[in-house]
Amino acid sequence: MAIANCFLTFIFLFSEREWTAVVGLEIHAQISSNSKLFSASKVHFAAPPNSLVSFFDASLPGTLPVLNRRCVEAAVMTGLALNCHINKKSLFDRKHYFYADLPAGYQITQQRLPIAVNGSLVYSVCAGKKQNQVISKTVRIKQIQLEQDSGKTLHDDLRSQTLIDLNRAEGQLRVDANISVHHPGEPLGVRTEVKNLNSARFLAKAIDYEIQRQINELENGGEILNETRSFDYKLGCTVPMRDKEGKQDYRFIPEPNLPPLVLYDSASLPANADPQQVINIDQIREQLPELPSVTREKLVQQYGMLPEHSLTLLNEVGLLEFFQNVIKETRAEPKKVTSWVLNTFLGFLKQQNLAVSESPVTPSALAELLNLLDRKAISSAAAKQVFEELWRNEGKTPAQIVSEKQLELMQDQEALEQLCHAMMEEHPQVVMDMKKGNPRAINKLIGLVRKATVNRADPTVIKEILEKQLSSRNVSGPSDGHRSGACET
Predict the structure, then answer these.
(1) C-alpha distance from residue 267 to each of 270, 274, 280, 282 (Å)
(2) DSSP per position, 51-116
(3) Count of beta carbons in the 10 Å neighbourhood of residue 375
(4) Structure confidence at residue 231 (pLDDT)
(5) Which pLDDT score is estimated for 487?
(6) CA distance 280 to 271
(7) How high is the pLDDT of residue 289?
(8) Which residue, 33, 59, 95, 134, is the most exposed by fewest CB within 10 angstroms?
(9) Rounded-to-integer distance, Cα 316 and Cα 358, Å
(10) Within 13 Å and on the Cβ side, how many CA atoms surround 359?
(11) How far are the Cα atoms of 55, 222, 254, 386 from residue 62, in angstroms, in the given order?
């Protein structure tokens, strides 16, 4: 399936005049199906070369294409997700060109009347210096079409051989980027096409490089050729492949072996229609899963999280499910869970370059840890220490780690009050600094009390006790070394 011509526009200021870049993407995405688009051959990634080839795939005379129902349903669902108009009647065409991995000499595609047209995709990006500003952008979708995949060409330079693998569909994603630049208000510039980009990272690098290259070329008096280029990921630049001045004539003709593809909605569905023989657009719409934009909005509304946090949860594979499982098992506030998952948990994953599925800390373990923290059984510092122990994957629960390392918070309020009082008596100068409003003074006393309790006292509770005792001293009179009844000026 090819999602053709998604259009994006960017504005740059590299000199005294602005430049506008226009980028059109042709995205070839493999459909998740058990068999191929037009044959019953299985689809299996990295299968031995030419082990999944039917007579039709090899283009033997007399073989006919048979359309895969699952692929049609997937194309319709994609079109609905991208706000496209679904054509109830679409056509198949033959696109003729000669290449060794296309034994028939033509490719079956949808050129004249594809399955879906005129869509849009609204997406969000984090901007600003701290990446805390979420901006919405819209990409126009020209069309979605079903298209037969060609074979794979393997060049053996050592033996001067070219080998062909007709398994097809080995790659899950391939993008061709058409890029041009022009001054705002002027006609569009000459475009170049960067072919066969196979990752989002390489796509971004290729686009950035090609935009800058074209601007530099034009500002230095050069011209842009209408050519096909490839991206050299080792050098980080695009290089010419072949020019497109003599545009290839693909000689599109109707595919004679496939009738028009007819779809229905609930209103137009024939009364005696066999559900196995027709495809109902409305039925597929009902099966459409919740879209990412809806999920992000729900996260913001339900848990009060920032929009940029919802983006991160959805962008990391498996992170949203991990977060939701923690939420189910903990009494901690959602904002606390969000902070621990996005900062502590995700931070550990990034440090060790691990996927969420590879984490040694389970959602249940993190939920138990947050429960201990929520009921003030341990301090925040102790919680981080427990998390580090959990990450070592020694098979212990948070409660066991807390018990073994004696990380429980002091629960004896009276003993803690006595300790705070004694510490204030021992450090009168610090108390005087507190009275003068020095914010560092109370932090020093908090540190001294925590040290005396081997970090088993909650700093928030300590601060409350110290402030209360200081207030009591101010009301009842000086007790910081001055004589009772002494005059102060």
Answers:
(1) 9, 15, 10, 9
(2) SS--TTTTT-TT------HHHHHHHHHHHHHTTPEEPSEE--EEEE---TT-TTSEEEE--SS-SE
(3) 11
(4) 95
(5) 36
(6) 13
(7) 92
(8) 59
(9) 13
(10) 25
(11) 9, 52, 18, 69
* Residue 360 one-letter amino acid: P
Task: Give me the residue spans of the domains in the chain.
Answer: 2-254, 292-404, 413-476
Listed residue (112, 98, 90) closest to 263, CA to CA: 90
- Tell me the C-alpha distance between 331 and 326, whole Å: 10
Beta bridge partners of 197: 175
Q: Phi and psi at residue 228, in whole multiples of 5°?
A: -100, 135
The class of domain 413-476 in CATH terms is: mainly alpha
Task: Pull the structure tokens for residue 299.
Answer: 């996260």
**What is residue 258's predicted lDDT score, i.e. its pLDDT?**
97
Token couple for 10: 């960017």
Q: Do 54 and 40 touch, CB atoms closer than 8 A? A: yes
Report helix, strand and coil shares of the chain as percent, to nearest 5.
35, 20, 40
Q: What is the mean pLDDT of each run of 10 residues along the chain (489 residues)?
A: 61 66 93 93 90 95 96 96 96 92 94 95 81 84 94 85 86 88 94 92 95 95 93 94 64 96 92 87 95 92 93 94 97 96 96 94 96 90 92 88 85 82 88 83 86 77 85 57 38
Specify the DSSP class assigned to residue 334.
H
Element (H, E) at 28: strand 19-29
Quickly count: other Cβ atoms within 10 Å of residue 157's Cβ: 7
Residue 158 has which token pair?
A: 């050592």
**Can you give the pLDDT at residue 9?**
63
Terminal Cα distance for the chain, rounded? 87
Task: Return the structure tokens found at 216.
Answer: 């530099």
- Fill in the amino acid letter for 452: A
Measured in whole angstroms, the distance separating CA 14 from the mean position of its chain's CA atoms is 30
Q: CA 69, 73, 78 angle in degrees (round to 5)?
A: 145
How would you classify residue 487: left for phi > 0, otherwise alpha for psi between -120 and 50, otherwise beta?
Answer: beta
Q: Using H for helix, E for strand and C for coil, what is the string for 284-331?
A: HHHHCCCCHHHHHHHHHHHHCCCHHHHHHHHHCCCHHHHHHHHHHHCC
Dihedral angle sign, alpha carbons of residues 98, 101, 106, 111: negative
Q: Which residues have a Cβ under 8 Å from the Cβ of 158 and sit 6 or more positions away?
A: none
Which tokens in the block code for residue 444? 């020093």
Alpha carbon of 186 to those of 38, 48, 189, 212, 388: distances in Å?
A: 45, 52, 9, 19, 59
Task: Give the CA dihedral 197, 57, 86, 124, nearest 10 degrees.
Answer: -20
Phi and psi torsions of 264, nearest 5°: -130, 160
The predicted structure's pLDDT at residue 433: 85
Residue 287, phi then psi, degrees to nearest 5: -85, -5
CB–CB of 65/56 below 8 Å? yes
User: Which of 355, 342, 344, 348 is CA-nearest to residue 305?
Assistant: 342
